Amino acid sequence: MVVIDTHTTVQTDSALPPASKTSWRFGDLSAAELMPHLQRHLLEQNSKANWQLVWLNNDGRPVIGLLPKTSWCVYPVTNDTLHATKQGNLCKIEKTRRGHVHLYSNSSDSAATSYMSYSDWQEELITYSRAHEIDGIHGNGSFSTKDVDQQPSYQHGLIGFISYDISAHELSPTVNIEMAAQPCALLGHYDIYLTADSDSQSSWQLKVNNDNNPDSSSVQQDTNALIRVLTSYLNSLDNQLSNENVTKKYSCKTPPLLLEAQWSKRHYQQAFHQTQNYLQQGDCYQINLTQAWSGYLSAYEDNSVTSLIDYLPALNANTQAPFAGYIAIDSYNHEGKVNTSNHQFELLSCSPELFFTFSKDIETGKHHIRTKPIKGTMPRGLTIEQDNYYKQQLINSEKDRAENVMIVDLLRNDLGKYAKIGSVKVPQLFAIESFSNVHHMVSTITAELKTDTHPLSVLFGSLPAGSITGTPKKRAVEIIAELEAAPRSAYCGTMGYMNFDGSGQWNVLIRTLQTTSTADNSKQVSLWAGGGITVASDCDAEYQECLVKVGNLLSVLANDSGLS
Predict the structure, then answer these.
(1) Which residue, of 109, 119, 188, 478, has the fewest CB within 10 Å?
(2) Is the separation of the CB atoms in 395 and 432 below 8 Å?
(3) What is the average pLDDT across 172-192?
(4) pLDDT per residue as tens digits for the range 159-181
(5) pTM of the complete model
């Protein structure tokens, strides 16, 4: 059975009744199926709390963050605002703290806006993480593992995403790399979260981490109250989902979501030939060229509003993506109060690609890192014979091997800045990994970090990922900005978590959709696909590869989506 797990002792508030239930099956739904129900239910119970619900599949070890203790939501600074800030402070950061939040009353989170550079924000996060790592060690022991090859799981730290736009701008700040007018990063300190039972994956446990601060008795009492209210919310959701009639009520088919290509094939051909010109002139060895699809969410038959999360169950069932994730961000009004009536931004990823896995050896304190870039794609076949034929084609492809090696070398150089001398290794080249719609060529690179290097520095300093830019990276992002002529937004950024001890896991945001609110309150949905272009690339083949990568997603959204 699943129980509430508190990592430090919590004093009981005698004025509040004990939790009535300590385990939840939620109708035996999977994490992706549960998420729409959970989001809807929490908002129905309290629409004023800044839930910031986030889900990571985390390679089969799902985690659902509920209500962050502290969160940093980052926006690009507009030209008008830039004049009022110090030069280089290109991030507008809305920092919210849960503080003394009582969900049973209508008190709201507090929000403070500040302006700082990307690097200064990184340093603030590192300082915050180190302070809470000390709390964790003193209060409850390390969260690390003795086996550096063991897959990590979320224990206590930061969860969120960092967009391509903000990291590409940081890599080449003198070039006009446009940033979308939307959240370009979010990281939240999730001290309260749900994890699935490792065996059944359908039984859920609420975990709570409390700061080991002897002077925070009032905060602990407030946390106790919060947990009791949360438990009551989870109890009622569990009861609802055990009722088949209630489940069926919310199982109506989602409206078709039709996304149209923003480039015609002719547009792609023109961009491809411009890419070839840069390659032949020696600007780059490889450039990742992407294109976008977009459309608008529509309402259900009863005129209720759809959200991107409603499509999550069907998308996840189709892709079974190991590094999938979802997060929603709401806007704040001029008084700093959260507005949950209309999600400002949703991010839904069906990513198959690992960016970084960080692990920490509990005995030596050393941090290790693993990355697995994808470069090389073939479709799945309709028969076993055809599928094996495509797979063998990928294995034998000299072009794909050459592209893969270019990105491996780029990532080796990226890691070399942070790794102990001689520790960067490539234990596996050109492995084939198969997914629902494609075969991918994947290589593995490992390293041991220098003792004075924080894993967040590696994450920030290595973005954007080489597999979705090209090489040399800086020149590649500049050419991408010119040829694509529109922001990539969150797409090709990263989503994941970093425990306060420096262990963690981050994806590359490919096979990723996002929803943004337009001026007329419509919900625009965007999806991208691309591929690495070299001098040996064929235009028609590269164009077709884009279609293969998103074809199943477009099909699910248009025809086969259903809300569990």
Answers:
(1) 119
(2) yes
(3) 91
(4) 999 999 999 999 998 888 889 98
(5) 0.90
Q: Which helix (H) or strand (E) holds 386?
A: helix 384-396
What value does the CA radius of gyration of the chain take, rounded to a whole number of Å?
23
Tokens 């960016």 found at? 355
Amino acid at 17: P
Closest CA to 328 of 316, 340, 336: 340
Annotated catalytic sites, by residue? Answer: 353, 375
Per-residue buried b or exposed e for 409-425, using 16+ beta carbons within 10 Å of the residue's own CB: ebbbebbeebbeeebbe
**517: three-class secondary structure by DSSP:** strand
Residue-wise DSSP of 324-366: -EEEEE-EE-TTS-EE-SS-SEEEEE----EEEEEEEBTTT--
Share of the chain above pLDDT 90, in %: 65
Q: State residue 563's pLDDT score.
A: 40
When the pLDDT of each residue in the chain is averaged and rounded to a whole number, the result is 85
* H-helix or E-strand spanning residue 553: helix 539-555
CA distance 78 to 76: 6
C-alpha–C-alpha distance, residues 345 and 522, integer Å: 12
Determine which helix (DSSP H) or strand (DSSP E) holds 129, and give its type and residue range.
helix 118-140
Among residues 115, 169, 76, which one has the least CA distance to residue 474? 169
Tokens at 94, concatenated = 């809305």
Residue found under tokens 């337009």: 518
| Cα pseudo-dihedral 153, 159, 165, 166, rounded to 10 | -120
Side chain identity, residue 123: E
Q: Which residues of 272-299 are buried (b: 16+ CB within 10 A; e: fewer)?
A: beebbebbeeebbbbbbbbbbbebebee
Helix (H) or strand (E) holding 542: helix 539-555
Residue 148 to residues 61, 446, 502, Cα–Cα distance (Å): 17, 11, 12
How is residue 415 written in tokens? 């890691």
Which of left, alpha, beta for 376 (phi over 0: left; psi -120 to 50: alpha)? left
Half-sphere exposure of 418 (CA within 13 A, CB side): 24
